[in-house]
Amino acid sequence: AQRVTQPEKLLSVFKGAPVELKCNYSYSGSPELFWYVQYSRQRLQLLLRHISRESIKGFTADLNKGETSFHLKKPFAQEEDSAMYYCALSRTGNQFYFGTGTSLTVIP
Amino acid sequence: EAGVAQSPRYKIIEKRQSVAFWCNPISGHATLYWYQQILGQGPKLLIQFQNNGVVDDSQLPKDRFSAERLKGVDSTLKIQPAKLEDSAVYLCASSPLNRDRGHSYEQYFGPGTRLTVT
Q1: Whole-number pLDDT of residue A65
Q2: What does pLDDT average to over chain B?
Q3: What is the C-alpha to C-alpha distance for residues B43 and A57, in angstroms, rounded to an integer?
Q4: Partners of A9 in the beta sheet?
Q5: How far apart are CA A77 and CA A81, in angstroms?
Q6: A95: distance to nearest CA of chain B, Å?
Q7: Which of B2, B11, B59, B98 has the fewest CB atoms within 10 Å, i.e. is most exposed?
């Protein structure tokens, strides 16, 4: 069965500190992994996907198939990064699975 | 461009009643998704359409939930009869296609409909 695990429901870091949001998955094939973000009073939106290997708003995420992880990282957290972050997995463009989310608070 | 529209934004009903939600995707988007998000959990995919055909409805409780996308544009999700555990936010999302050239397209989400079943 496909599953996405985000072990931290809440995460607080100080402004300027590094931040890492953990995501582990279980899937017996080649998944597509995504990070979605929801800022306060805004809609859920795509932050980044593993296939594009890009950095968005300073965030990066590397797919580690050996550890089945797709952790989201940023070297210096900003206050505007405070939001709810969801890791998601897709199987061949169908059957999307979302994790339970991590609420990130960046303390000024 | 206009985003994904959903209505109503809020709905309160009693258990055993029926309710329907409406979604209008971004113009030209072939794929439409309905998700259920229970408080404290991530979105759970209920059904995925490509144009007016169902691609995946494996997690849709078909004994009480139904969805349609006539003409391949807007869509309705219905619950009949509702149970207390159906209280959740129902999210609609759309994308140009679900997949092309080996990768999935970005999903654009609507604001959601918050359903409370009492």
Answers
A1: 87
A2: 93
A3: 23
A4: none
A5: 7
A6: 7
A7: B2
Any A CB within 8 A of B42 CB? yes
Q: Is B35 exposed, middle or buried (0-12, 13-18, 19+ CB in 10 A)?
A: buried
Residue numbers in A near B111 (CB within 8 A): 43
Q: Name which of B45, B64, B46, B117 is nearest B87 in CA terms.
A: B117
Local confidence band at B98 (pLDDT 50, 70, 90 cut-offs)? low
Instruction: Assess contact for A8 and A72: CB atoms under 8 A.
Output: no
Q: Which has more confidence, B52 or B79? A: B79
What is the bridge-based pairing of β-strands B10-13 and A24-26? unpaired
Map A44-90 to HEC letters: CEEEEEHHHCCCECCEEECCECCCCECCEEECCCCHHHCEEEEEEEE
**Token pair for residue B24?**
């209008």
* Contact flag B45-A97 (C-beta cutoff 8 Å): yes
Amino acid at B104: S
Inform me whether the C-beta atom of residue A53 falls under 8 Å from chain B C-beta atoms: no
Residues of A in contact with B3 (CB under 8 A): 43
